Amino acid sequence: MVVLNRIYTKTGDAGETALGNGTRVAKHDLRVTTYGTSDELNAFVGVARLVATGDLDTQLGRIQNDLFDLGADLCRPDMEKDATADYPPLRMSDSQVTRLEREIDAMNDALEPLRSFVLPGGAALAAHLHVCRTVARRAERLAVELATVETINPAAVKYLNRLSDWFFVASRIANNGGKDDVLWVPGANR
Protein backbone atom coordinates (compact mmCIF):
# COMPACT_ATOMS: atom_id res chain seq x y z
CA MET A 1 0.00 0.00 0.00
CA VAL A 2 1.21 3.48 -0.82
CA VAL A 3 0.94 6.22 1.81
CA LEU A 4 2.02 9.72 0.80
CA ASN A 5 1.66 12.00 3.78
CA ARG A 6 4.60 14.26 2.92
CA ILE A 7 5.62 15.04 -0.65
CA TYR A 8 9.10 16.42 -0.16
CA THR A 9 11.72 14.41 1.72
CA LYS A 10 14.91 16.35 0.95
CA THR A 11 16.67 12.99 0.38
CA GLY A 12 17.25 13.85 -3.29
CA ASP A 13 18.85 17.24 -2.74
CA ALA A 14 22.32 15.87 -3.47
CA GLY A 15 21.29 14.41 -6.84
CA GLU A 16 20.44 10.87 -5.73
CA THR A 17 17.20 8.96 -5.48
CA ALA A 18 16.11 5.59 -4.08
CA LEU A 19 15.11 2.69 -6.30
CA GLY A 20 12.24 0.43 -5.29
CA ASN A 21 14.60 -1.85 -3.38
CA GLY A 22 16.10 1.05 -1.40
CA THR A 23 19.36 1.28 -3.35
CA ARG A 24 20.50 4.91 -3.78
CA VAL A 25 21.55 5.92 -7.30
CA ALA A 26 22.20 9.12 -9.22
CA LYS A 27 19.07 10.77 -10.56
CA HIS A 28 20.58 10.49 -14.05
CA ASP A 29 21.05 6.71 -13.69
CA LEU A 30 19.82 4.89 -16.81
CA ARG A 31 17.23 2.96 -14.79
CA VAL A 32 15.82 6.20 -13.34
CA THR A 33 15.81 7.82 -16.79
CA THR A 34 13.94 4.80 -18.18
CA TYR A 35 11.16 4.73 -15.62
CA GLY A 36 11.08 8.54 -15.60
CA THR A 37 10.35 8.44 -19.31
CA SER A 38 7.49 6.00 -18.73
CA ASP A 39 6.14 8.51 -16.19
CA GLU A 40 6.49 11.29 -18.78
CA LEU A 41 4.56 9.10 -21.22
CA ASN A 42 1.83 8.62 -18.62
CA ALA A 43 1.49 12.40 -18.33
CA PHE A 44 1.10 12.71 -22.10
CA VAL A 45 -1.55 9.97 -22.03
CA GLY A 46 -3.37 12.08 -19.43
CA VAL A 47 -3.30 15.02 -21.86
CA ALA A 48 -4.65 12.80 -24.65
CA ARG A 49 -7.49 11.71 -22.37
CA LEU A 50 -8.67 15.32 -22.18
CA VAL A 51 -10.06 14.90 -25.71
CA ALA A 52 -10.60 11.13 -25.82
CA THR A 53 -14.06 9.60 -25.49
CA GLY A 54 -15.64 6.17 -25.41
CA ASP A 55 -13.53 3.08 -25.92
CA LEU A 56 -10.32 5.02 -26.58
CA ASP A 57 -10.66 6.87 -23.27
CA THR A 58 -11.33 3.60 -21.43
CA GLN A 59 -8.34 1.93 -23.08
CA LEU A 60 -6.11 4.93 -22.34
CA GLY A 61 -7.16 4.68 -18.69
CA ARG A 62 -5.99 1.05 -18.63
CA ILE A 63 -2.73 2.09 -20.28
CA GLN A 64 -2.16 4.74 -17.61
CA ASN A 65 -2.52 2.09 -14.93
CA ASP A 66 -0.19 -0.22 -16.87
CA LEU A 67 2.39 2.56 -17.07
CA PHE A 68 2.40 2.80 -13.27
CA ASP A 69 2.91 -0.98 -13.21
CA LEU A 70 5.78 -0.49 -15.67
CA GLY A 71 7.37 2.16 -13.46
CA ALA A 72 7.06 -0.13 -10.45
CA ASP A 73 8.68 -2.94 -12.45
CA LEU A 74 11.55 -0.80 -13.75
CA CYS A 75 12.33 0.79 -10.38
CA ARG A 76 13.11 -2.65 -8.87
CA PRO A 77 16.45 -3.88 -10.24
CA ASP A 78 16.34 -7.22 -8.41
CA MET A 79 14.50 -9.72 -10.55
CA GLU A 80 14.25 -12.29 -7.77
CA LYS A 81 11.92 -11.86 -4.80
CA ASP A 82 13.74 -10.06 -2.02
CA ALA A 83 13.43 -12.20 1.13
CA THR A 84 13.23 -9.04 3.24
CA ALA A 85 10.44 -7.44 1.17
CA ASP A 86 6.89 -7.45 2.49
CA TYR A 87 5.57 -8.33 -0.96
CA PRO A 88 6.96 -9.54 -4.29
CA PRO A 89 7.98 -6.89 -6.82
CA LEU A 90 5.27 -5.92 -9.28
CA ARG A 91 6.26 -7.06 -12.78
CA MET A 92 4.73 -6.46 -16.18
CA SER A 93 3.11 -9.59 -17.58
CA ASP A 94 2.72 -11.09 -21.02
CA SER A 95 -1.06 -10.82 -20.54
CA GLN A 96 -0.73 -7.01 -20.62
CA VAL A 97 1.16 -7.31 -23.91
CA THR A 98 -1.48 -9.69 -25.29
CA ARG A 99 -4.28 -7.28 -24.34
CA LEU A 100 -2.57 -4.51 -26.34
CA GLU A 101 -2.21 -6.86 -29.31
CA ARG A 102 -5.92 -7.72 -29.21
CA GLU A 103 -6.85 -4.04 -29.05
CA ILE A 104 -4.46 -3.19 -31.91
CA ASP A 105 -5.92 -5.97 -34.06
CA ALA A 106 -9.51 -4.87 -33.33
CA MET A 107 -8.75 -1.23 -34.21
CA ASN A 108 -6.72 -2.16 -37.28
CA ASP A 109 -9.54 -4.34 -38.63
CA ALA A 110 -11.63 -1.16 -39.00
CA LEU A 111 -8.94 0.67 -41.03
CA GLU A 112 -8.00 0.69 -44.67
CA PRO A 113 -4.38 -0.33 -45.36
CA LEU A 114 -1.90 2.53 -45.54
CA ARG A 115 -0.37 3.52 -48.87
CA SER A 116 2.00 6.10 -47.37
CA PHE A 117 3.54 7.07 -44.06
CA VAL A 118 1.33 9.15 -41.77
CA LEU A 119 2.44 12.57 -40.57
CA PRO A 120 1.62 13.33 -36.93
CA GLY A 121 -1.53 15.41 -36.85
CA GLY A 122 -5.10 15.51 -37.99
CA ALA A 123 -7.55 15.57 -35.10
CA ALA A 124 -6.39 16.87 -31.70
CA LEU A 125 -6.58 13.37 -30.19
CA ALA A 126 -4.57 11.89 -33.06
CA ALA A 127 -1.86 14.53 -32.59
CA HIS A 128 -1.69 13.79 -28.85
CA LEU A 129 -1.49 10.06 -29.56
CA HIS A 130 1.42 10.63 -31.94
CA VAL A 131 3.28 12.42 -29.13
CA CYS A 132 2.54 9.40 -26.92
CA ARG A 133 3.85 7.10 -29.66
CA THR A 134 7.17 8.92 -29.91
CA VAL A 135 7.66 9.06 -26.13
CA ALA A 136 6.81 5.34 -25.93
CA ARG A 137 9.49 4.65 -28.55
CA ARG A 138 12.02 6.66 -26.53
CA ALA A 139 11.08 4.72 -23.38
CA GLU A 140 11.50 1.49 -25.34
CA ARG A 141 14.96 2.52 -26.60
CA LEU A 142 15.99 3.35 -23.02
CA ALA A 143 14.64 0.02 -21.73
CA VAL A 144 16.53 -1.87 -24.45
CA GLU A 145 19.71 0.03 -23.54
CA LEU A 146 19.15 -0.71 -19.84
CA ALA A 147 18.76 -4.40 -20.69
CA THR A 148 22.28 -4.40 -22.15
CA VAL A 149 23.79 -3.50 -18.76
CA GLU A 150 21.27 -4.86 -16.23
CA THR A 151 18.66 -7.57 -16.09
CA ILE A 152 15.15 -6.29 -16.69
CA ASN A 153 11.82 -7.96 -17.24
CA PRO A 154 11.49 -8.86 -20.96
CA ALA A 155 7.74 -8.24 -20.75
CA ALA A 156 8.47 -4.57 -19.97
CA VAL A 157 10.32 -4.14 -23.26
CA LYS A 158 7.62 -6.03 -25.19
CA TYR A 159 4.92 -3.89 -23.60
CA LEU A 160 6.63 -0.67 -24.68
CA ASN A 161 7.11 -2.02 -28.20
CA ARG A 162 3.42 -2.91 -28.56
CA LEU A 163 2.34 0.30 -26.85
CA SER A 164 3.89 2.54 -29.47
CA ASP A 165 2.12 0.46 -32.14
CA TRP A 166 -1.12 0.83 -30.16
CA PHE A 167 -0.75 4.63 -30.15
CA PHE A 168 -0.14 4.66 -33.91
CA VAL A 169 -3.22 2.61 -34.72
CA ALA A 170 -5.32 4.53 -32.19
CA SER A 171 -4.23 7.80 -33.82
CA ARG A 172 -5.67 6.54 -37.09
CA ILE A 173 -8.93 5.64 -35.36
CA ALA A 174 -8.98 9.16 -33.89
CA ASN A 175 -8.49 10.54 -37.41
CA ASN A 176 -11.96 9.49 -38.49
CA GLY A 177 -10.97 5.87 -38.99
CA GLY A 178 -7.92 6.90 -41.01
CA LYS A 179 -9.92 9.05 -43.45
CA ASP A 180 -8.38 12.23 -42.00
CA ASP A 181 -4.82 10.91 -41.72
CA VAL A 182 -2.25 13.41 -42.94
CA LEU A 183 -0.15 11.43 -45.41
CA TRP A 184 3.48 12.05 -46.24
CA VAL A 185 4.12 13.07 -49.85
CA PRO A 186 7.80 12.29 -50.52
CA GLY A 187 9.65 15.26 -52.01
CA ALA A 188 6.51 17.42 -52.13
CA ASN A 189 8.36 20.63 -51.30
CA ARG A 190 11.42 20.32 -53.52
Global structural class: mainly alpha
Largest sheet: 2 strands, antiparallel
Widest sheet: strand ordering? 1-2
Q: How far is it from the N-terminal to the C-terminal residue, by CA? A: 58 Å
Which shape, going by the Cα principal axes?
elongated
Q: What is the CATH C level class, in words?
A: Mainly Alpha
Annotation field: number of helices: 5
Which fold does the CATH topology refer to? Hypothetical Protein Ta1238, Chain: A
Q: What radius of gyration results from the CA coordinates?
A: 19 Å
What is the count of β-strands?
A: 4
CATH superfamily: Cobalamin adenosyltransferase-like
Instruction: Please give the share of residues in helix.
Output: 40-55%
Provide the residue-averaged pLDDT. 92
**Unreliable parts:** none
Q: Which key features would you list for this structure?
A:
Corrinoid adenosyltransferase, single chain, ATP binding, 54% helix, 190 residues, two-stranded antiparallel ribbon, Hypothetical Protein Ta1238, Chain: A
Describe the structure.
Its main location: cytoplasm. Belongs to the Cob(I)alamin adenosyltransferase family. The protein has 190 residues and is mostly helical. It has a single domain, classed as Up-down Bundle (Hypothetical Protein Ta1238, Chain: A), CATH 1.20.1200. It has five helices and four strands, in the order ββαααβααβ. It has helices at 30-49, 54-74, 94-109, 124-147, 154-174; strands spanning 16-18, 24-26, 118-119, 182-183. The strands form two sheets. A two-stranded antiparallel sheet has the order 1-2. A hairpin with a 5-residue loop joins β1 and β2. The radius of gyration is 19 Å and the shape is elongated. The mean pLDDT is 92.
